[in-house]
Amino acid sequence: MRIHLLKRNIKLVILVAAIFVTMCYLAGIYGLKPQNSQLSDYELVPMYGGHRENNEKPSPFDDYDDPFSSSLITDLKVYNKVKGNKCLEQRDFVFIKTMKCATQTMVQIFRRYGYRRHLNFVLPRGGNIYLGWPYIPELQDYRPSKRPFNALAEHSVYNETVMKSIMPKTTHYVTIIRKPFSQFKSSFHYFNVANISRMKTTKDDISEYLHHLDMYETFYKTPAASATRYCIPDEFSVTKNLLSHCLGMPLGFPAGRENITSQSGKVAEYIEMLDRNFMLVMIMEYFHESLVLLKRLMCWSMEDIMYHTVNVGQYSYKDKTPDPENLKIYKNWSGVDFLLYDHFNQSFWKKVKHQGDDFFDEVKTFNDIHTRVSKYCSNLEEGENSMTILATAFSDHFVVTKEYCVMLGVDLLTFLKTRMEREEGWVNQDTGNKGPKRGC
């Protein structure tokens, strides 16, 4: 399976590179807008995110040079099949991208959904990939737009006040979490904690770290280690209550912010607030169940929730059963994340129960379709030009093309930024600055 994925990734990279080079070549010859256009360089072209007047159709020039033009959806209203009925798909969303919870895979789903419908994304400035994370987002962290935002999916810290000031009232909030100890191991590996903390070589890095938390954690967060910490500021912990931090809980970072870690009442109140504000908190351990629930709650199609797994870390202790003593130490160290996970694991299954008896039938149907799509997209050179997925009790039929397969695997952040720059003439206008003063 890994060999097939590797071959597929190589093919996707080559195909995307060819598309990108061709796009740049054409742009260089013909400019960034059609010669017949009467638009000025900075005039706004309304797109199909749902903010056009009189339900007007997009201009034929809106995506004239888009490398994924045949996959775009120009209808302003789309009705999909959910539980045997048709409903209007929901297009305004915020996805809080928690660290190391299959969020890169998830963000590809949200980016692709929005890109195809020309939604207006809140995007990082310049070459940045974060919206100020691990700080609460500010105006300096994202590109202003001439039209209302529809979507936010890049790494950011949730803040109710900030999000409501940026996004429309119809916004649906979604995130994903995983078992805290499993998330800790993934973060420990991804952020290179052992090397940066100058841990001594042992047979069990996790155990060594947890039994000397104060020493290793203190050094990791010091200025002395800053040169080797990619995107992580001084005094920020990547191993303690990271899920709760991403969801905006005040835990003492940055300096001067309230720290409610030891105040159980305030922690419980904050978790309840999240439960009220978020339409769905997905559970990574039940990924396909989460996707089907997302599809139903957002009235999306089966095609919309197809995915290609990306950014999966491989490390020796990944699947190792936690040592009871290590688990006890970590639960004491990062207890807020355990409370968060326990709460939303319960609320998740309550939502599933409300979906009725056919929910797991749809999960099985999704499993079967996802397997077929993955197999087809892993053999682009050998297969047919397209594959039709027939209608089911839970979805309409759709056609999988080679271009669609490319969209499953390509990082669309660059394409979203390029589209915004072309349409709005966006440039970094920070006076005296070369970009954001923080974040990555």
Question: Descriptors for this entry?
Answer:
globular, 15 helices, four-stranded parallel β-sheet, alpha/beta, two-stranded antiparallel sheet, 41% helix, 440 residues, 8 strands
Estimated radius of gyration: 23 Å
Q: Which spans have pLDDT < 50 for at least 5 consecutive residues?
A: 1-10, 18-61, 430-436
Order of helices and strands: HEEEHEHEHHHHHHEHHHHEEHH
State the helicity in percent bands: 40-55%
Shape: globular
Family: Belongs to the galactose-3-O-sulfotransferase family.
Subcellular location: Golgi apparatus membrane
Main location: Golgi
Transmembrane segments: 12-32
Describe this structure in words.
With about 450 residues, this protein is an alpha/beta fold. It is about 40% helix and about 5% strand. The strands form three sheets. Strands 4-3-5-6 form a four-stranded parallel sheet. It has a two-stranded antiparallel ribbon with strand order 1-2. A two-stranded antiparallel ribbon has the order 7-8. Helix 9 packs parallel to helix 12 and helix 10 crosses helix 13 (about 360-375). The longest helix is centred in the N-terminal third of the chain and has 29 residues, at about 1-30. The protein is globular and about 55 Å long. Keywords: Glycoprotein, Golgi apparatus, Membrane, Signal-anchor, Transferase, Transmembrane, Transmembrane helix.
